[in-house]
Amino acid sequence: MKHLLSAADLSRDEAVAILDMAEQMAATQAREIKKLPTLRGLTVVNLFFEDSTRTRISFETAAKRLSADVINFSPKGSSVSKGESLKDTVLTLGAMHADGIVVRHSASGAPYQIAHSTWTDASVINAGDGTHQHPTQSLLDAMTIRRHLKGGAAAEAPAGADRLTERAAALAGQDLSGLDVMIVGDVLHSRVARSGVDLFTTLGARVTLVAPATLLPVEVDKWPADVFYDLDRALAEQPPDALMMLRVQRERMSGQGGGFFPSPQEYSREYGLDARRLAALAPHAIVMHPGPMNRGLEITSEAADGPRSVIVEQVANGVAVRMAVLYLTLTGAKE
Ligand code: NCD
Predict the structure, then answer these.
(1) CATH classification of 135-311, choosing from 3.40.50.10860, 3.40.50.1370, 3.40.462.20, 3.40.50.150?
(2) Following DSSP, what letter does each residue of 259-289 receive, concatenated?
């Protein structure tokens, strides 16, 4: 695997192999010395044209744990603010012999443009492009779901490094077949939802999307997912094993005249995860959110911090998934 541009590019076996590798990476992270020599001598550039907290830090941590040299490049304070183009920026990075470029950009397709250009021969990993794709997010989501809902007791109870190896073995080879994943909220602007639908269905799960019609893309009927406009009805008719709440992406709504929903209060009432809906979930069901959360809008603090919430685990699993992806793309590219 030279690049990771879209969750839709992964076959079931490729996706399972990445998750298995991520479990092995996670097992190494319980050791006293977390650093592996795997990518020593290679350079990874984090090229983030759009704001990010956890994704950028997660990629940086992952690359450093694998002993790569890491360069963080963000356009503020660089020549990009002087109007330098994507092409010239990447040519500059190419001249510095970057082996991997992790890119986040507000334009859907920017990582493809870089990967398919002659500007660089580095591996390109998409860390979120516009409203299009965010493949490592859906992989860390799948890892979190698999760990909680597959693999039985050995997968559930992590304690000590030896148990982690046991857990990796219990999960190895498993996909998400038989599971119900429900994704709720601002699907229209969400690369997390698009990547999730692609990956979870490839892994055999059934995906249900719930949103007001104004926050669904026009082509949603062509997606391999069931669609509901009524959250309570969806929860009753297709009770989820994993319930993923999406952030209302207000920054992508400006300039479009607003009007995606009548008021924040009404959005919370119709589509928010509150105590009543939380209590209606199956006993084993988990609550997810990619972050950053709008507490009180799409999710209450009670739900975000409650015993079903795996939101902090999602962040931790992100490091393991990104270690696996960096390893597979950068070493695959060298062979
Ligand atoms: C997501 C993103 O940037 O696409 N966040 C993330 O990567 N953790 C989701 C979001 O911003 O709502």
Answers:
(1) 3.40.50.1370
(2) -SSS-HHHHHHHH-B-HHHHHTS-TT-EEE-
